[in-house]
Each structure stands twice: as structure tokens, then as C-alpha cells.
Design goal:
Layout (H helix, E strand, L loop, with lengths): L1 H17 L6 H20 L5 H19 L6 H21 L4 H24 L20
Helix pairs in contact: 1-5, 2-3, 2-4, 2-5, 3-4, 4-5
């Protein structure tokens, strides 16, 4: 099983180098949303501890916004999945009462999604806002 996981991660990473950066945010969403929404749907059916239920309630709308509006998804939306939603969902799965084999399957799917999203985010860094102009320096008045 470990060899399969390592092979999957290597294959996805290599695929990311070649073709991921050429995908539009909508294409990325189409690839990553099924596993992500499936994980959320499964977690919503469970009785979760209050903090995990709250965390899930916070990230579910973010995932829904990206996955339901795939035609208008931006790189920033994909990046927020990577930075906010996916790590939270993985933490919730780890803390959930799912059977170990089901947890492992969901985490494997989400890890593959994370690799795809991260490779695209790395290939498309966010636009950096220009630095603000320095404040004018006022010389002291001569005495």
C-alpha cells in the first residue's frame, strides 16, 4: 500500500510539472472538486465533535463556491482551497469516527487533490501588489 501511495504521489507530481500549469482554474476545479465535495458530503453525515463540525461548516461554503461556480473560478479561489479548505478537511477526516481504511482512502484522495492544487498554485503565483510609494521626507525648517 505504501508503495502505491508513493507511486501515486510521484506520478501526480511529475504530471504537475508538465501539464498542470497550462490548465485554467475552471479545469483545475473540475479535477479537484469531485473528491473534495465527496469528502465534505461524507463528513456532513457523521456526528463530529463540535470544533470539527464548526470547522467543516466554515470551509464547506468555500468549497461550494469554487465547485459550483467552476466557470468563474480564479487562481485565487484555487489557492484558497489549497491554503484553507483542504488542510482543514484533512484534519477533520483524521479526527472523524470513520473506520481507518475509509479515513486512509479519503486522505489519499485529498492528498492527491492537494498535490494538483499546490503544483498549479506554484506555477501561477499570486499577483504581487506594488509597494506603496515612500512617504515624502520633510526637512526640518532652518533656524
Amino acid at each position: 500500500m505504501k508503495k502505491l501511495i508513493v507511486a501515486l504521489i510521484v506520478a501526480l507530481s511529475m504530471a504537475g510539472c508538465a501539464s498542470q500549469s497550462q490548465q485554467t482554474p475552471a479545469q483545475v476545479a473540475a479535477r479537484v472538486c469531485p473528491a473534495t465535495t465527496d469528502a465534505i458530503g461524507s463528513l456532513q453525515k457523521l456526528t463530529l465533535p463540535a470544533k470539527d463540525a464548526k470547522a467543516l461548516a466554515e470551509v464547506a461554503p468555500l468549497v461550494d463556491a469554487v465547485c459550483k461556480a467552476a466557470s468563474t473560478v480564479t487562481s485565487d479561489d484555487i489557492r484558497s482551497l489549497s491554503v484553507t479548505a483542504l488542510p482543514a478537511i484533512i484534519d477533520i477526516v483524521n479526527a472523524s469516527p470513520l473506520e481507518t481504511d475509509k479515513k486512509n482512502a479519503v486522505i489519499l484522495d485529498l492528498t492527491a487533490v492537494q498535490i494538483i492544487v499546490d503544483s498549479i498554485a506554484a506555477a501561477n503565483p499570486p499577483a504581487v501588489a506594488p509597494a506603496p510609494a515612500p512617504a515624502a521626507v520633510v526637512a526640518p525648517a532652518a533656524k
